Amino acid sequence: MRTLLFAFFVFLVQQTIFPQKPAYVLSASGGVTDMIRDGSNLYVATDNGTVDIFDLNSKRRFVNIVFPKIEDFTGEKIAAKIFSIDKIPGNDTLLMVCQGMSGFRDVFIYYDQLIKVIDATSQKMMIREARFVKPDLILMGLTSDELLLFDVTAKKILYRIQIGHYTFDDLVLTSDRSKVLTSDESGIIHMFLTDDGTLLKKYEGQNVDNVFKIDIKDDVLICGGQDRRVAVYDIISSDAYHIQGDFPVYCVALSPSGGYGAYSSNEDSDIVVFDIDTRDVLFTLTGQESTVNNILFCSDNKLIVSCESEKIYFWNLKINK
Q1: Cα–Cα distances in Å, from 178 out to 134, 145, 181, 272, 310?
Q2: Strand order across the beta sheet in which 60-66 lies
Q3: pTM for the full model?
Q4: 71-97 burial string, b = 16+ CB within 10 Å, else e?
Q5: Which tens digit of pLDDT belongs to each residue from 62-102?
Q6: How many helices (H) does the chain have, and how many strands (E)?
Q7: Rounded to 5 degrees, what angle do the CA atoms 157, 162, 168 make?
């Protein structure tokens, strides 16, 4: 009897920590670089100069936006890599940072047609990513560790501030887009007001090296870095802890409630899903075939994962609340 109970316990643990496979896998038109979800649509940027829009109900791509090719240093025409994509929920306009001429970046918006709002050749900016603050205001993070707010209508920079003296890595907006949090090689997370760039707060002490990726939901902030740590902060109280791993953490994400976190955990690109409060590991998601670069929670028990390949993985989790 004891043997049977032990075997049943092992079976339950294996089912919880090691799901067998994703619910399904979709393929993009190039290696995925960034993705966002709005309702039942998934917007996917690729390194092949394209943006794919998938209907998650039908599991089919229904739009493929193709960007103009650029010339490399030999004069050959090549696909322009898309570095980031964004949209305001409920608004159909898309925002993309795209590889431009001479190593600089173009910024496009798309609504029925592509419109260039930042030109690589003339403005010569190394933009890492861009996010909408409002339909006519774009917030950009530059690799030079700068934060820049650009007015699309007036075609002018409203502010440009130096965050630190490191290399910029990531930015994330709060749900109301009134605040932005940034990360860089310092391991410090900075919070600014988006309307005027006022520095509100710093979060530090948990990461001690380059922070590759951050996410925020409600009052919870999660960070993953070169130091192999997953840091979790309460942004109100600044209470914090970190989970020490044994491999650089390239990607992190939070569920919509902020109750669960996920992070890339090892060289096999396995993803650990854990309880934010208890720190208990709930699942280890295996089978990703290359480095994880995006994790999106659709709900507390559904998430989407992309890697440095065309494949997009969809996971359904059974979390016992």
Answers
A1: 10, 20, 10, 30, 33
A2: 32-38, 41-46, 50-55, 60-66
A3: 0.92
A4: eeeeeeeebbbbbbbbbbeeeebbbbb
A5: 999 999 999 888 889 999 999 999 999 999 999 999 999 98
A6: 2, 30
A7: 100
Closest CA to 169 of 182, 150, 155: 182
How many other C-beta atoms lie within 10 A of the C-beta of residue 178? Answer: 11
Q: Virtual CA dihedral for 208, 214, 215, 216, nearest 10 degrees?
A: 50
* Residue 311 in tokens: 């494949």
Phi, psi of 121, deg, nearest 5: -65, -45
Strand, coil or helix: 116: strand
The pLDDT, as a whole number, for residue 18 is: 53
Would you tell me how many other CB atoms lie within 10 Å of the CB of residue 142?
20
Instruction: Please report which confidence band the pLDDT of residue 17 belongs to, taking 50, 70 and 90 as the band edges.
Output: low
Give the position of tokens 């932005």: 180
pLDDT in tens, 110-147: 999 999 999 999 999 999 999 999 999 999 999 999 99
Evaluate the CA torsion angle 287, 293, 295, 296 in order and state its sign.
Answer: negative
